[in-house]
Design a protein that fits this description.
Number of strands: 12
Strand order of the largest sheet: 6-11-10-9-8-7
Strand content: 15-25%
Largest sheet: 6 strands, parallel
Number of helices: 10
Radius of gyration: 23 Å
Length: 282
């Protein structure tokens, strides 16, 4: 599991602020904020415009604090909380200039990560009464994988591998280049003993080869319902089975009922819609 404390949140926020400030971490480069008197103090709040699952507190807080450490923030929610329309998430007080300079960066992180958590929750909730686990994939926004993986956990789903380093996932092109499933699995076990070895298969024949080779997990790629049922019978509990490819949330309960161990979908992180949040000056 990824913990937000293990993520380079400061690096994420600094890059985003520099992007907004012309490449420098200098609030004076916000020319619109300069229209406001320097000593103007105001109260503000961030509200939800729609319901969902909240995520992104640490990113938002740091966005405001890096711009102005004197800003005071009173948080009313935590990551993973369900939120409703018009709910106040955080109250902010201090320099009006600083609040408005940090506003967009903070909202962008909160909206993206809350959108990811909400997407994950929609999928995971469909499996809450089953033993099948909902997984994300590596189809994440470049540069924000760990942040999105954290948001997926906040939404109630689980993480697949994080990258190309922490587990083997042997796909069609790997199989071809290695000279077959057996060769690929054998080499993986020699190269990194103890790491999970997953094989993506496109037929029941390949499933049999992966089981015989001793794969830890077999991913059934774009199998139809009948093929998945046959795969579960053929496997007979010998390895974990994962279903992936064109997964829609309305199919989840049916797939779980067949008896697969995992369902994975890139939709949790790549098809997200940012949760609608707004900052209001009081």
């Amino acid at each position: 599991m990824v913990n937000h404390k293990d993520i380079d949140i400061e690096g994420d926020v600094i890059r985003a602020l520099k992007e907004d400030l012309g490449g420098e971490l200098n609030p004076e480069l916000d020319i619109t904020a300069l229209l406001i008197p320097k000593n103007s103090k105001r109260d503000a709040r961030i509200i939800a415009r729609e319901a969902g699952v909240f995520c992104g507190k640490a990113w938002a807080e740091l966005s405001f604090k890096i711009v102005d450490d004197d800003l005071h923030m009173d948080w009313l929610v935590e990551d993973g909380d369900s939120i409703v329309e018009n709910q106040t998430l955080v109250k902010i007080s201090g320099s009006a200039r600083s609040i408005l300079t940090a506003e967009r960066t903070a909202l962008n992180f909160m909206q993206m990560l809350s959108g990811t958590a909400t997407s994950a929750n929609i999928y995971a909730s469909k499996l809450s009464s089953t033993s099948t686990v909902m997984l994300d994939t590596r189809k994440t926004i470049p540069g924000f994988r760990n942040a999105q993986k954290y948001a997926v956990k906040c939404g109630g789903a689980e993480n697949h591998r994080f990258g190309l380093y922490d587990a083997f996932l042997i796909k069609e092109n790997h199989i071809m280049a290695c000279g077959g499933i057996g060769n690929a699995v054998s080499k993986a076990k020699q190269l990194r003993p103890g790491l999970p070895v997953e094989v993506e298969v496109e037929s029941l024949e390949e499933l049999g080869q992966a089981i015989d080779a001793g794969a830890s997990i077999v991913m059934l790629d774009n199998f139809d319902t009948e093929q998945i049922q046959e795969a579960v019978l053929l496997n007979n509990g010998r390895c974990k089975l994962e279903v992936s490819g064109n997964i829609k949330d309305d199919k989840l309960e049916k797939l779980a009922a067949i008896g697969v161990d995992y369902i994975s979908s890139g939709a949790l992180t790549k098809n997200i819609v940012a949760l609608d949040l707004s900052l209001l000056i009081d």
